[in-house]
Amino acid sequence: MTVRTRPWETPRVSPCPQDFRVVVRIDSWEATSLYPNGHFVRVLGRIGDLEGEIATILVENSISVVPFSEAQMCEMPVNTPGNPWKVSPEEERERKDLRETHLVFSIDPKGCEDVDDTLSVRTLTNGNLELGVHIADVTHFVPPNSYIDIEARTRATTYYLADRRYDMLPSILSADLCSLLGGVDRYAVSVIWELDKTSYEIKKVWYGRTIIRSAYKLFYEAAQELLDGNFHIVDDIPEFRDLDEKSKQAKLEELVWAIGKLTDIARHIRAKRDHCGALELEGVEIRVQLDEKKNIHDLIPKQPLEVHETVAECMILANHWVAKKIWESFPHQALLRQHPPPHQEFFSELRECAKAKGFFIDTRSNKTLADSLDNANDPNDPIVNRLLRSMATQAMSNALYFSTGSCAEEEFHHYGLALDKYTHFTSPIRRYSDIVVHRLLMAAISKDKKTEIKDNLFSNKDLEELCRHINNRNRAAQHSQKQSTELFQCMYFKDKDPDNEERCISDGVIYSIRTNGVLVFIPRFGIKGAAYLRNKDGLVISCGSDSRSEWKPGSLQRFQNKITSTTTGGESVTFHLFDHVTVRISVQASRCHSDTIRLEIISNKPYMIPDTELFHQSSLLLKSDLVKEVTRSVEEAQLAQEVKVNVIQEDYQKYCQTKGRSLYTLLEEIRDLALLDVSNSYGM
């Protein structure tokens, strides 16, 4: 539990000064008292300080970031200039060597260090195509039940915050020997398909350990430029810099063909899943742009590109085929990932909101839902479809890891991806579930060859327990990532004058009506939050002839798809679902909890974007008309789409305990239930 000391209280221990975040342990709580008894544990940092707030997020999510121990590091391989790591002769004999036969390359975010996956595509002598997904062979370096394996199992995942990450594995693996960097030899586990040259139907599949040498470490934007035929980006790709013009041209043509062919294959794979009801859900992922001094320069929603979907489809295909393989070999102890169908009542708000725009959303199955969302497009406002997809996301059930011995086969289905079996195989650097799956796959290959199964596999009971632990840690990782993004959003706006700073005024879209206000989405910053139409003094919002808002005595009347504010003088203004309004963004400081973003409607008209921002904003938002939103992993993105629902007024927040789903917190939240976006409770 983390608390903040109050200025009128005298700390009982000297290390706990005012205005610091501290950890306390609750020892007892008398039934007749409003306050528990406890003792001080340690100071996390000053309130408002970045490192102190990050430490608080980690503690609240039970995330340990202690350095790897000496015993764990002693198990690690060595790779230094004086003693470089190299492929062993034994591994060279046992693995399929792809270094001279395959054009292998990666496509990742700019600056990515932990490169889990690479791709290859080539034409075979019979005219068919060969598609390869090559994943870092982490299990070669992490033996079962070793010190590092036990530590990775405990951490379960790499924790990604807005400005940093905390690795599941030491950097010698995560950023070096298990990272499939360009121009170096690496061990991989590969899934290679032979595809029909015209229909792209799968003819055969091969699984096994390989040796690869990635030719290019591309970033998404560069790959998209090459796909679009804009070859000026070549100057930003290091592998091309030292080539003569003839060699550069030949290699460029080879790479462009490969990216184009991968994209064609991915479109075909996606079309098949779409036919079965795969969902394209909405996610707003915010990138924090820091300056040289690590100060927050800007908050930028990540721009969707077609190559995102190309890579995602190849990874989904590999995960699906590995899931089938390990289940066939170990039907009662395979680790898969299920995504149950959501409860129909969770779609009620989505259906009502769509109805307000004249759209009908059929939620009887994933197929009918996907088709309905595809048809729910307002040609004059692309934001409408994004918000409807976001509401569909919030209605989803949780996707979870499970042991196949713990439930019937008909429960294996992944609703969002429209696949009968699915697992996680493609990110063993950052997910322990994938390490387990790699071991299962290697055991399945050994079983096929009728050789001894070397790896110790979990029993169904032990795997069930492990899945519960990993699911718990995944939720912590998603919560911490969401909290860190909100922290940076607050820090970005905290030092800005909301009345005079241009960046604090933005266009917002109303996406939900509540009793005393509305919920607003701000596309520019990916922010969702509540905007009150009645203030603490009981005054209601009024908009004059110039559309500017002010507070006056009056009343609010809520309807299904709109809310009307009427002053005692007879003036009225109505806000409808999906109306664009001008919003002022500020930060609401709290005595006891994290700061929160405060939204205030200052005009009932859309915000007129200044010329200086017009190009920047259009490049972020209007491109969503042209490119589909990426679905790298439907379930992994869902927590990021949850609406910010902390709308408890400051007067109440002072006396709450640590934020969490305790009975005390729930009772406090009832006070503002009128503005609580309850659909968030069901997000991932």
From TrEMBL:
Swiss-Prot/TrEMBL cofactor(s): Mg(2+)
Pfam families hit by this protein: OB_Dis3, RNB, Rrp44_S1
GO BP, one annotated term: mRNA catabolic process
Keyword Iron applies: no
InterPro entries listed in its UniProt record: Dis3_CSD2, NA-bd_OB-fold, RNase_II/R, RNase_II/R_CS, RNR_Ribonuclease, RRP44_S1
GO CC, any one term: cytoplasmic exosome (RNase complex)
SMART domains given in the database record: RNB
PROSITE patterns reported for this sequence: RIBONUCLEASE_II
GO MF annotation list: 3'-5'-RNA exonuclease activity; RNA binding
Keywords assigned by UniProt, alphabetized: Exosome, Magnesium
Residues covered by the RNB domain: 95-447
Quaternary organization: Component of the RNA exosome complex. The catalytically inactive RNA exosome core (Exo-9) complex is believed to associate with catalytic subunits EXOSC10, and DIS3 or DIS3L in cytoplasmic- and nuclear-specific RNA exosome complex forms.
Its job: Catalytic component of the RNA exosome complex which has 3'->5' exoribonuclease activity and participates in a multitude of cellular RNA processing and degradation events. In the cytoplasm, the RNA exosome complex is involved in general mRNA turnover and specifically degrades inherently unstable mRNAs containing AU-rich elements (AREs) within their 3' untranslated regions, and in RNA surveillance pathways, preventing translation of aberrant mRNAs. It seems to be involved in degradation of histone mRNA.
This protein's name: DIS3-like exonuclease 1
